[in-house]
Amino acid sequence: MAKICEVCGKTPVFGNRISHAHNVSSRRWLPNLQRVRVKIGKTVRRINVCTRCIRSGKVKKAAR
């Protein structure tokens, strides 16, 4: 599964993990993705959506 929000396109962000001794290694921050049943037109699909898009109402969750 690609760590990409299918609504806004949010992807992982890369940076450095820095220890107290200033040893540097690579790390990444992942978006908080949820697999949600979403109503798109008249069909219902499962898509990966970040929690920001769910909270802001950019997607309409399908009823069970």
Structure description:
This protein is mainly β and 64 residues long. It has a single domain (1-64), classed as Ribosomal Protein L24e, Chain: T (Roll), CATH 2.30.170. 9% of the residues lie in helices and 44% in strands. The strands form two sheets. Strands 1-2 form a two-stranded antiparallel sheet. It has a two-stranded antiparallel ribbon with strand order 3-4. The protein is elongated. The two termini are 24 Å apart.
Mean pLDDT: 94
Rg result: 16 Å
DSSP strand content: 35-45%
Assigned CATH superfamily: Ribosomal protein L28/L24
Please render the helix and strand layout as text:
Layout: E1 13-18, E2 24-29, E3 33-40, E4 43-50, H1 51-56
Could you give a quick summary of the protein structure above?
This protein is mostly beta strands and 64 residues long. The protein has one helix at residues 51-56, and strands at 13-18, 24-29, 33-40, 43-50. It starts with 12 loop residues before the first strand and ends in an 8-residue tail after the last helix.
